[in-house]
Amino acid sequence: MNVRLLGVAMALGLSLPVAAQAQMLQPGLWELTTSNMKVDNQNLPDLQLILGQLQGQMTPQQRAQLEKQGINIGGKGVRACLTQEQVATDNIPLTDPASGCKQEITDRTGNQWKFKFSCPKAQGAGVATFLSDREFTTKVSGTFNATGIQQQGSLDSRAVWLGKDCGTVKPRA
Predict the structure, then answer these.
(1) Which of 30, 67, 96, 121 is the most buried (most CB within 10 A)?
(2) Which CATH architecture has domain 3-163?
(3) Burial of 151 by CB count in 10 Å (0-12 exposed, 13-18 middle, 19+ buried)?
């Protein structure tokens, strides 16, 4: 497993839960897990397996760089810390603010929000389903160009609130 695959997962997975904008979520530690990842209709391993393999291969510098971006690998996926101020705004910062990614909510019906997103190397659409203020899921599909080749991708993700205490996970600025 290589870092390019993590890049694909990050481009599709971490840019998408931003659809949680303005939805009142609990502040604290959140864990994002990804499943059913496909690239050009081929199944990829779940993010948990990819992250487990990468953890052993990452240098301390690579891990520090991810943590500087607010990305912490732990538990079953990627963890993020959200402050009270962040969950009260229209922008839940689960992506790197310097990533160039933008999203737009296109429809809000009940507990489901449809959205589209655009990043420098990825674009697409999805739906976020809010199960409670402590859990939401997303289904996303789009195109990306993480390796120099345009590809189709899709994935499902689940975000779960782990508690008020973020421990060592720092919120994004």
Answers:
(1) 30
(2) Beta Barrel (2.40)
(3) middle
pTM reported for the whole predicted model: 0.72
Three-state DSSP at 130 gives: strand
Measuring CA to CA, which residue among 102, 95, 149, 142 is closest to residue 122? 142
Mode of pairing for the β-strands spanning 28-39 and 72-74: unpaired
Two structure tokens written together for 140 = 């996303």
Q: Any idea what DSSP says for residue 24?
A: -
Read off the DSSP letter of residue 106. Answer: E
Predicted confidence (pLDDT) per residue in 73-131, tens digit: 666 778 888 888 888 765 555 556 667 888 888 888 888 888 888 888 889 999 989 89
The burial of 3, by beta-carbon neighbours within 10 Å (0-12 exposed, 13-18 middle, 19 or more buried), is given as exposed
- CA–CA dist 116, 112 (Å, integer): 13
What's the angle, vertex CA 58, arms to CA 53 and CA 63, rounded to 5?
A: 120
